[in-house]
């Protein structure tokens, strides 16, 4: 298995049909998709169980016994994955039809531990705005440069699976990606950039990540603390600790 795509799902019944359908359009077929239902209160799990019987790609459907947050849920997917490379996708997003083929060709040439690629921000109106990673990352020379510029979004990256050995997500409902990305980059020996928009981020105003709250900001601080502790880069600032 070349790619494993990990898709955490929570109350996604209104979006999951499109997400699974778009995956059938991939021109590259050596991949599996791991859907993890995070204790949804709607019909997400039932829809996934039904769809898995008809799609042409290999699927694994898992379910948390209770809502545990996206960090824990993604970790479950990583543990169950069998692919040489890992990708992450939110349950309301989708990849471009040529995404996996382009990544496969790129990886065959560069043998990267991590690949950064571009994405689109997609709206209900059909409008798309380019989210460019390549423009800035093409000037990176060290892992520290990549850490400084990384947007903190796992779906805009592809990882060699062995890079995840020993890495776990913090139990957060926000900013869980930001916690592990610097750790992953620090472990990578070969990082490359694919200047092509492969991923579509569906922008919903009501989504958890787009709704400001004190808890979200605290999650960012907890994420920062987690990264500092795992990378042993120094004592976490006491001022931040008091806020938490």
Describe this structure in words.
The protein has 244 residues and is of the alpha/beta class. The protein has a single domain (3-206), classed as Spore Coat Polysaccharide Biosynthesis Protein SpsA, Chain A (Alpha-Beta Complex), CATH 3.90.550. Helix content is 35%, strand content 23%. The chain contains nine helices and nine strands. The chain has helices at residues 16-23, 44-51, 70-80, 99-110, 134-137, 143-149, 176-187, 214-231, 238-243; strands at residues 3-9, 31-37, 58-63, 85-88, 94-95, 114-122, 128-131, 157-160, 191-202. Strands 1, 2, 3, 4, 5, 6, 7, 8 and 9 form a nine-stranded mixed β-sheet that branches. Strand 6 (114-122) and strand 7 (128-131) form a beta hairpin. Helix 6 packs antiparallel against helix 7 and helix 7 packs parallel to helix 8. The longest helix is centred in the last third of the chain and has 18 residues, at 214-231. It is globular. The N and C termini lie far apart (42 Å). 40% of the residues are buried. The mean pLDDT is 90. Keywords: Transferase. This is Glycosyltransferase family 2 protein. It holds the Pfam family Glycos_transf_2.
């Amino acid at each position: 298995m070349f790619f494993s795509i990990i898709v955490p799902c929570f109350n996604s019944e209104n979006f999951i049909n499109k997400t699974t359908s778009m995956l059938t359009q991939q021109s590259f077929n050596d991949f599996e998709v791991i859907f993890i239902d995070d204790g949804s209160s709607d019909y997400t799990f039932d829809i996934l169980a039904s769809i898995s019987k008809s799609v042409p790609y290999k699927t694994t459907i898992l379910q948390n016994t209770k809502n545990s947050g996206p960090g824990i849920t993604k970790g479950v997917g990583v543990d169950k994955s069998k692919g040489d490379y890992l990708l992450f996708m939110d349950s309301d997003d989708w990849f471009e039809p040529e995404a996996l083929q382009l990544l496969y060709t790129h990886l065959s040439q560069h043998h990267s531990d991590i690949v950064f690629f571009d994405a689109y921000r997609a709206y209900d109106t059909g409008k798309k705005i380019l989210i460019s990673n390549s423009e800035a990352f093409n000037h990176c020379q060290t892992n520290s440069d990549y850490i400084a510029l990384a947007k903190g979004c796992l779906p805009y990256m592809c990882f060699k699976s062995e890079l995840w050995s020993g890495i776990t997500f913090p139990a957060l409902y926000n900013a869980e990606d930001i916690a592990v990305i610097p750790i992953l980059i620090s472990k990578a020996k070969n990082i490359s950039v694919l200047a092509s928009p492969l991923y579509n981020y569906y922008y919903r105003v009501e989504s958890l990540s787009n709704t400001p709250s004190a808890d979200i900001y605290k999650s960012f601080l907890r994420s920062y603390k987690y990264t500092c502790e795992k990378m042993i880069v120094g004592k976490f600032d006491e001022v931040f600790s008091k806020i938490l």
